[in-house]
Amino acid sequence: MLVPFSNWLAANPAADLKAIKPDESVTLPLLSGRYEEVIAATFDYDRKARRPSDMFGEDLRAIIELMRWTGLRIGDALLCARSRITGNKFRLRTRKSGAPLTVVLPDHVVAALNALPKRPDVDPDFFFWSGKSKYKSLTGRWQRKLHRLNDYISMSDYEGKSMTFHSHQLRDTFAVTQRILTQYERKLLTFSSRRPAVVLPIRSYL
User: Fold this and answer.
1) Which of 15, 46, 88, 151 is close enough to 57 for a disulfide, judged by CB 3.0 to 4.6 Å?
2) Is residue 86 part of a domain?
3) How would residue 112 be classed by pLDDT, with cut points 50, 70 and 90?
4) What is the domain count for the chain?
């Protein structure tokens, strides 16, 4: 015997469910010219500085490049010792997980780090750290400087909505581009197994 549909449920079980709110903490990778816009903002940062002691464009570029090409959290990048880089090889154990990490850095990233201006509050054995300041105060100081870059940035997301730059986007950019390059390498292997290798421009994937 069939039971009428109206008698199956006495009440709607979904009536008490709340609407799903979007996660505002989700960040997007800096692709399609957005990364270049962030780098350009570091030059504007210096041009708008009131005095030479307020110019940190070189330092900001070095931090941004280091995070973009290693996927490091900002704290790990700021605590980076000069001894961790040999040639183009960068070795580190992350502060959070203790996981060993080795990355080959592009030449321009190594050059940016080695060209950093000497500052009295930075230990010569490090790129950004005094060797004494606390982790939270160090990261907070540079997070504020990175956030000020938004005064010179006008970025939109994929829906055309205004997008604010966050340092975590540099890690997202590293992760996404690594995935893209892996897919690119697989395509090359597929091509080479069937016909003479066809080299595709990597930039077309970014």
Assistant:
1) 46
2) yes
3) very high
4) 1
Q: pLDDT tens-digit profile of 28-66?
A: 888 889 999 999 999 999 999 999 989 999 999 999 999
DSSP string, 66-127: HHHHH---HHHHHT-BGGGEETTEEEEE-TTT--EEEEEPPHHHHHHHHTPPP-TTS-TTBS
Tell me the whole-structure pTM to 2 decimals: 0.74
With bands split at pLDDT 50, 70 and 90, how would you rate the model's confidence at 127? Answer: very high
pLDDT band at 10 (very low <50, low <70, confident <90, very high): low
**The CATH number of the domain where 84 resides is what?**
1.10.443
Give CA–CA dist 127/199, Å, rounded.
37
Two tokens, residue 23: 């996660």
Residue 146 maps to a domain:
yes
Exposure string (b/e) for 12-35, b if CB count within 10 Å is 16 or more? eeeeeeeeeeeeeeebebbbeebb
| Domain enclosing residue 174, as ranges | 34-193
Q: How many CB atoms lie within 10 A of CB 71?
A: 19
Helix, strand or coil for residue 31? coil
